[in-house]
Amino acid sequence: MTRLLEGIESRRDDMVQLTIDLLAIPTVNPPGDNYRAICEFLKARLEPSGFECKLLRAEGAVGDSDRYPRWNIIARHEGSSAGSCVHFNSHTDVVAVGDGWTVDPFAGQVKDGKIYGRGACDMKGGLAASIIAAEAFLEAYPEYPGAIEISGTADEETGGFGGVAWLAEQGYFSPERVQHVIIPEPLNKERICLGHRGVWWAEIETYGHIAHGSMPFLGDCAVRHMGAVLNEFEDTLYPELAQRRTEHPVVPDGARYSTMNINSVHGGLEEAEADYTGMPSALVPDRCRMVVDRRFLLEESLDDVRAEVHSVLQRTQAKREGFRYDVRELFSVLPTVTDKTSPVVTAVAGAIEAELGQGPEYVLSPGTYDQKHIDRIGRLSNCIAYGPGILDLAHQPDEYVGIQDMVDATKVMARAMVDLLTGDSSDAVLGGVHNE
Ligand SMILES: [Zn+2]
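Above: the input record for the complex with zinc ion. Below: its predicted structure, written as tokens.
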């Protein structure tokens, strides 16, 4: 163990440079730039340590095109004998830069013990940490049983369909192949993230009748109908959601309640082009569309979530003459939580205790991440998110990751590998645990 921890300390500069190199490849998504380049970079990094690297394009997946191909890498290192496989999964994409930066978002500036850049904490810092953990582990335990995998995957920020979802469909996360998954998302180095809330996205459309704006009584205003839907939400559904609090430790605290965001409302004339200087025409809008983003708790069911929005619409209909509507479901993800007694949880919890001198804080994420695909498509529930970086900095200007946090989290990951690959507990977990 001493050799392992010293190996990580001696790689501190290498880890910083690796993070800077990853930040310099601007994998901004959307549209999904430079996936191939970052996969090639990771391949060149990992092959010398004995990883066999596969570059896989998610052909046919949502988002994949010849202009913006969705490339992924799976790097696998086989141990000297049979055993379980520990897999580190990081997404390689970063969100748009946005305004408000005081440093170059792709230059990897290091200042006061922090590395700055778009994706520094979410999650190229975590990716670099897992690579250093694996390289130091291989040096200290060259004869280990089992296997280590590191993946760099596309499109997490846009749903993961050209990344982990596609790989899971191809069998890369099946429990026969992979037994323990750690996703180094920035959840803070003393936290283990066990899962996430559910999601239901839907588009509601109300219909009216077009007429001249000077004689609205001859038409029927779809926007007013939608206003009535919003009122019904305010009067009945929102107060109800604010009462529902999960028993699970979702962070931040506001996300322990059931929530619904009104993502957009569009009604009436299409918005004019930016260079149009004329006036709008006088029309009664005959259509209005609203997108809702409903996040639900482990204690709620998707059927109930759907049903209560439908009942809001039915109540509105009962009150309004001529009210017609449609609901189109856009997207849904069931909530998931990994059992605290799962091997990957106990191994990382023990590693945090050993490294940081205190037990972990268990949390659940307010939003989803790629664990959903590993759980639902891959049928592998022995999966957590654990990584360096402060969650609140993700997607912000002047995003950074602390170098000491990275070193600490790298040691935690490496200790967990020792437990899962060479320790007594590793035999008991082949096949993973699935609780549904
Ligand atoms: Zn992320």
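Notes for the reader.
The pocket of zinc ion is lined by residues 91, 122-123, 156, 185 (CB under 6 Å).
The domain at 198-249+258-269+280-333 is CATH 3.30.70.360 (Alpha-Beta Plaits).
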